[in-house]
Design brief:
alpha+beta, two-stranded antiparallel sheet
């Protein structure tokens, strides 16, 4: 692997820098190179290339918004004996502490970025002598993403869709429940979903949803801080409802009240927020059930029952 890395990165030096890390899905290691320090994620699964291509595209898209800091992606490299590595900028990070409030503010800016681009484009089109195409990042009017991204190692179906309720029901919940059915054949889950999918539109009657660029997997393990502010990483991005982002944050904690209060100063809670929050948590519980097994079945079933009350 190291010979391949040297060749692909155009470096004679490749020295492990002692910053090793890893999550549930990939291993990681920092290296010193001729061009500075880099961080390398390694994964030997067959899905590794799809996963890292999606992550690279997610980081590139978030970077372009100039809202919240992410590591700069550099290269996805396929290994000769299978698997893949993803090379990115090395950042000196520590646990999120003093920059919680700033993260709330910058995450809201990320979520508002696409709407601001839309407003800017509309304004430009109304200005004499200016056409479309003056804005830096083209506004996105549908839900989805240009490539498939992975939440964990399971690919997300990101085909563009103009209706958010349809997108979320079919391309998020139905997709995960199909995997549950395939692996476990769970009758109770199947029966609850048959009822719940008919009720989902009711949770969205009083809310207007503009596509927001999302990190997509924003739990406490995917946020940190550098000396100059907060940083988020390991994204599974797509354009969706901004409320979806907060669901996994609420499940596993790691975000204090200043994060939420500053965020909601910029994006106030809409009517029905708490019910939709449960609906969005359902995706993550199902995804965890599909990744880690039946320990997450109880939470998935409980949420479906709650939403049907």
């Amino acid at each position: 692997m190291e010979a391949k890395l040297k060749k692909e990165l155009g470096t004679t030096m490749l020295k492990p820098a002692g910053h090793a890390g890893g999550g549930c899905i990939s291993e990681g290691q920092s290296y010193d190179t001729d061009h500075g320090r880099v961080f390398v994620k390694i994964n030997h699964k067959t899905e590794a290339k799809l996963m890292f291509d999606g992550e690279m595209s997610s980081l590139e898209t978030i970077l372009k918004t100039e809202t919240v800091k992410v590591p700069k992606p550099m290269k996805v490299i396929e290994l000769d004996k299978g698997g893949c590595v993803f090379v990115m900028e090395h950042l000196d990070m520590k646990s999120l502490n003093k920059y919680s409030q700033q993260l709330g503010e910058r995450l809201a800016d990320l979520h508002l970025h696409n709407k601001r681009q839309m407003d800017k484009q509309n304004k430009e089109q109304q200005t004499v002598g200016k056409g479309a195409g003056q804005t830096e990042v083209a506004p996105v009017e549908k839900f989805g993403f240009g490539v498939n991204t992975c939440c964990g190692y399971i690919a997300q179906q990101n085909e563009w869709q103009s209706d958010w309720v349809l997108f979320y029901s079919q391309q998020r919940l139905q997709y995960q429940l199909n995997l549950v059915e395939k692996s476990y054949g769970d009758r109770e889950a199947r029966e609850l979903w048959a009822k719940l999918q008919l009720k989902i539109p009711e949770f969205f009657t009083s809310v207007e949803i503009v596509p927001s660029l999302l990190h997509g997997d924003l739990w406490g393990g995917n946020v940190a801080e550098c000396a100059d502010g907060p940083v988020i990483f390991d994204p599974a991005s797509f354009y969706g409802h901004s409320e979806f982002e907060l669901a996994i944050a609420g499940m596993f904690g790691g975000f204090n009240s200043s994060f939420y209060s500053v965020y909601h100063d910029k994006i106030p809670q809409a009517p029905g927020f708490s019910q939709r929050s449960q609906l969005y948590q359902l995706f993550h519980y199902l995804n965890h059930w599909n990744h880690f097994g039946g320990g997450y079945r109880g939470s998935s079933i409980r949420i479906m029952k709650n939403l049907l009350k």
